[in-house]
Amino acid sequence: MAEHKAEGDGGGNMEDLPAGQLPAEMESWSTEHVRKWTLELKNIGEECANIMYQQKINGESLLLLDKSDLMGTGIPLGPAKLIIHKRDELVKLKAEMLNYPGVQAGGPCKPYPFNRFHEAYRYRINSCLDIPESGALDLIEPCHEFKAYINTVDATKEAKMKKFTDDVMCFATACMNSRTNGTIHFGVGDLPDFSHGQILGFSVEDKESFGKALHDMIEGHFEHKHVAAAKKCIKPPRFVEVLQSDMTSSENYVMEVDIEPTFSVCEENFFHVYNMDSRKSKRSKSKESREDAKEFKSFYIRDNSSSRDLLRQNTQSKPLEEYTKYNENISKLSQERKEAEEKRLSIARNSVQGSKLCEMITGGSHSLDTSHFERYILVTNKSHPVQLDSLSFLLDMNLTAVLDFDPESSEKGLKKFFEDRNTNVHSPVQYKITEAVEDIASKLKLTRITSWIFCNGDISGEEPSDINSWSTEKGASVRDVVSFLCRGEVLPPKRFLVIFLLLSDVIDSKDPLLEIFNTFRQELRGPHQILCICENDRSFISWKELIEARYGDNISNRCISELSFAEINGTVLSLWSSNRRSSRFLPSGGGSKVMLTKKIEGCLDTLDILCVNQCEGGNDDKLSIQENFYKGGKVSWWNFYFSEEPGSTPFIKRDKFDYIIDTIIPDLCSLTRPCALFNIMHLPGCGGTTLAMHVLWTQKEKFRCVVLKDRAADPDDVAKQVVQLLTYEATEQSTGLPILLMVDDFEERDAVYCLQQSIERACPRKSTGGTNPQVIILCCMQTEFWGRHEATVDTVFIGNKLSEPEQKLFQNKLGEMKKTYKNVETFYGFMILKENFSPEYIKRVAKNTLKSFNINQKQAQLIAVMVLLNFYCKNPPLSVALCETFLGLPTKPKFGSCKVQDGFGKFSPLVTCCTVQAKVVFNAVRVIHPSMAKHCLEELTTTHSISKAEIANLLLTTDQFYDCLQGKEKLLQDVHAMLVKRYHSPEIEETQFSPLIHAIIKETPGFEETVLFNAAKRFEKDAIISQLLARYHYLKKRDFREAKDWARKAKDLDGDSSYIADTSAQVIKHELRNAIVTNQDDPIKPDQLGDYLKMACSAIDAFKETQVIAKKEVALRSQRKKDYTPYNISGRHGEIQVAVMVIEVLEKIPVFSLDKLRRSILSHILSGKIPIQAVASNDRMRHKNASYYHVLQNFEPFLQNIKDNMRVLCTLC
C-alpha cells in the first residue's frame, strides 16, 4: 500500500525516518534517502525503489543519471521518465528557493478558522502555522496538509489545475473515509525545503478557475452516487491574503480547502475515486480502456500525516485485506463521528462579557452620555474589510487620538472607514516636546479633533517597517506619543480609557502593539485604564500569553474576547441615548432642512452648532441637568428644551428679550454690510449669557445659529468656518439663511471687531449672494462699571435689578421647581436672581454656609482660594483633577450622584462644574456666582479673621495647587492677572496696583510686601512680576535702590519689551521727583542741581530707549495676527515729564529765578539760542553764581535740546 504526498511540496514524513531527517541538499542523500524519496513518488512503485537501492544510487549519483541509465538497471521506461522529471523539478525548486523573498521563517500563527469564509484574518509571510500535519484527531479538530505550490510558475494552467485537483481529491477522500475534518493548504511550505508550516503564498490571477476545477474534479472522479455528498463535504477554495512582514499587501494568497464529512451527509458510506475522469472513460468505446479505468480506482484514508490508498498493492500486506477490514469498520467510525458532533454541539458558552463591556467602556455608568471617561485613545492594527461594517461604534466615541499601526489604513483600512469624520492626520514626530506641552496640544487641536497618528508608515511617503525593525526605526517616536498623551496637561488623569482594538492577531513577541501596550502600562502605572478587545479566543489567547510571558501581567480581566465585532458594535451603540444617535439638521431656504454630516460638523471645530432638532430624543439626566443649572451652572441647550416639554413653564424671558427679537435683529437684517454686530453688555452673574443663548434657541429655524467655542481661536480660521457653514448645502437658486454667531467672554472689543472684519473679508468670496448681512454677531460681554441703562441701536444692557414682570416670572418658576425638587433653597444660582440680587440674602447664605469654616481643613483652604480667585479674576476655574488631588478624593464619575462637588463637604453648594475651552479642553470647578464670591470673602474676613493676604499667601506658597498639570497654565494665568492687572474706571483715572494688592494694602497694611515676595518666588522667571516689585518699591516704599534691582531683573528677563524698559526709566523719574519734593533747601544748591540734572539725563536716556523698543514692537506687531496692543507712548510721556521737572528745577536756582528777564534767558538757553557762557559773561553776579554756571556748562548739550525735543514729542503724542 502507498501513501500520497505531492512531490516538490517541501518533502514529507516517511515511515522509517522522522520528519526532517531527509537532508536539504540532494548531494548528501544516502541510498536509503533515495529509496525513501522514490517510494513517495506517485505511480513509481516499491519495485523501482528497491532496484535503485540495490544499484547503490545515492544523491550525488542521482543528479548524474539520465533516462537510459535507469532503464539499464531494469526500470521500465514510464517510471524512469517520471523519476528523472521529479528529480529535475526538485532541483529547480531548490534553485528558486535561493531567490525566494524572506525565506527565513518567522513566528508562529494560527490557521484560518475552519469552515469559515469571511473572517478578518490574514497570514504574514514566513510565519509558521502552529499546527502539525496530522491524521485524524478527535474527528472534529481538523487535520492539516501543507503544499508549497510554488514550483508551478512555468507550468501550464492545465498542469496547475491538475496538481491542485489531484492533491485535493486524495486529501478530501482520505478525510471523508476517515470521517475527520481537515484542511489542505496550498502556499504553505514544509520540511526539508522550508520550515514546517511556513507561509509562502502564491499569485492567483483567476480565483474562480480553482472553484470550477474543484467542481469538475468532484463530478468526474467520484462515483456518481457520491457526487452530491462530496460536494457537501468538500468546501469551495478559500483564498487567505498574505501580508508582507511590514503588514502591507503582498498580492499573494494561501489557498485552502476545508473538508467536513458530517454524519448526516456521509452516513455509513465509503468513498472511492478514479484517477482518471470517469466521464471521459465512460465515453471511451474500447473495452480495454474501460478496464484500464477500473484499474485506477483508489480508496484513500488518513494515515498519520499522509493520505494512503488501501487499494495500492505493496509488499507489506496481502491485497485488499486492509481495505476489506476498514470497510467492515466503517459503521463504527461513522457512529464515532456522530457522537463527536453531538458532543461539540452540547458545549455552550454562557458569557457575561456584554455586561462586562458596558461596565468597562463607561467606567461603571453604563451610558456613554454620562461616561466616567471623558476621552478615549484607540490603538489598533491591520484591519480586514469584513470587520469595518461592525466598527461604526467608534465613529461617535470621543476619540482624542487613534494610534494606527496599519500602513494601508488610508487606502483600505480603518482610516478610510473614518473618511466621513473630520480627523487630523499626524506623524509621531509631531509629539516630540520642543515647546510648552499645552502649546503643542493646541497646535495639534488635540482635544478638539480626533488625532489620527500613523505609527507605521502611510504618511508623508514614510515606508513601513517590518516587525523586526519597527522598534529601532519608529519605536522611540511612538513612545513619545504615548508619553505626551498621558501627561496631565493633555488628558485628565484617570478619566480617559485606552482601547486596544486587535483587528489582527498579535502572534509575535516583537509586535509593536506589545511595546506600546507596555508603554501605556508604564505611563498609567498598570493596566487599569486599558481595555483590550479581541474578536475571538484565538486572538485573545495569543495576546494574553505574550503579555504574560513578556511583562508578567495577567490581563484577562481587562479583555473582551467572547463577543463578535457585530455584538460589540451593537452593545456599544446601545450605550448612547437616542438623541446622540439621531441625525442633526440645519435650517435652509424656504423652510427646508438639510442634514448636517458628522464630517462637516467635525471640520467646524471652533463652532458649537445649534441644530433645529437639537436635543430631540430626550435625556435621562433631566433632573441633574436642570439642578446643575439652577445651582449656578452655565445654561445648556437642554435647559431650553426641557422648558418646552408639556407641563413645564416656559423659559424665563428677560425684559430685553423681545426688544432683541423684534427690533434689533430685524434692523440688523436690513443693513447692507456682510457682517453685522450687536452687543449684550451685562454685569457678571446677571444672566447675559443665558439671554444670548435664549435668543439663539428661539431663532434656530430662522438662522443657522452657532456659538464660538474658543475666543482665542484665530479669527481668520473662525471666519472660514462660519462661511463654510453659511454656504453648506446652499445653491445659487436657493436663498441661504444667515448665520447668527454668538461670541462670549471677549475681554477686548478690538478682538470682536477683528473677527467681524475677518468674516467680512471671507463673505464676498464664499457668499451665496444678496445684499443683506450674511452673518450677525451677537457679542455677549461683561462690564464691571454700570454707567448706561438704555438700549441703543446695537447694544442692550443687563443689570443686577429685575423688573416687576421679571420678578413675577421667577416667582412662578420657583413654584414649579418646588413640585420637583426638595432642596430648592440650595439652588443659589436661581435664588440670587429670584431675590433680585439682594446683598442681604447673599450675605446670609455666605454666613450660613461658612459657619463651620476652619482654615486648617483642606475643603476650607480650597474654597477660600476659589472665592479669592473668583472675586478678583474673570471666570477663574480650578480643574477637577486639581480639586480631586488637593482634597485627596478618588477619581469619580463626572455625572451622577457622586460628583467632585461632594468633596467640598458643607461648602459644596457654593461651587459648580464647568468646561474650560483653553489650549486643552478640560472640566473644572468654579464658584456659582461672582456676588457669592464677594460676600464669602467678606465673611471670611469679618467672622473668621482670614485676611486676603493670608489667602493669597496660601495660594502662592502651596505647591499642591501647581502639582496637578491639567489646568495649571490657566491657574497661573489667573493668579498672575490677579496680582498685576490694573483696572481703569471713570472714578479712578489710573490705579497704581491691582485691586487685590490695593485691598491688601487697605486691609492689612504691610502684608502686601510678603504677598509680592511670594509672588516673585512663584513666578521666578516672570518679568512682569519683577516689574511689579519694582513699581511697588518706587511707588509705595520709596526704596529706589531695591526698585532698580527689580527693574534690572525684569529687563534681564525680557529686554525686548518697551513696557519693561519703561519701568527702569520710571524708577529714575520717580527718584528725581522724590529728591526734588523732599528737598527743603531754597534755593537749590549747586551740587544738588548737578545730581538732579544727572538723574534727568539718565531718565531721558532710559525713556529714549523705551521709544526705540516701542518702534521695534510696532514692526513686529504688524506681522502678527490678533495683536491689538497700541503703540506704547509712555517713553514719550516720560521724557516730557522729566523735561518739565528739569525746567521747574532750573527756575528755582538763582541764575534764572530773579525776574522775568532771567526766565526769558532760560527759555533761550533751552532752545539752544544762547550759550551758557554768554549768559555767564553778562551776569553781574557771575562770581557768586559761578558754581551754578559750572554745573550748567557740564550739561549744556542736554539743556539746549530740551525745548526742541519737547515740541517734537508733543506733536507725536
From TrEMBL:
Residue runs in coiled coils: 323-350
Task: Name the domain of life.
Answer: Eukaryota
One GO CC annotation? cytoplasm
Q: Which UniProt keywords apply?
A: Coiled coil
UniProt cross-references to InterPro entries, sorted A to Z:
SAM
Q: Where is the SAM domain?
A: 29-75
Protein name per UniProt: Sterile alpha motif domain-containing protein 9-like
Organism the protein comes from? Clupea harengus
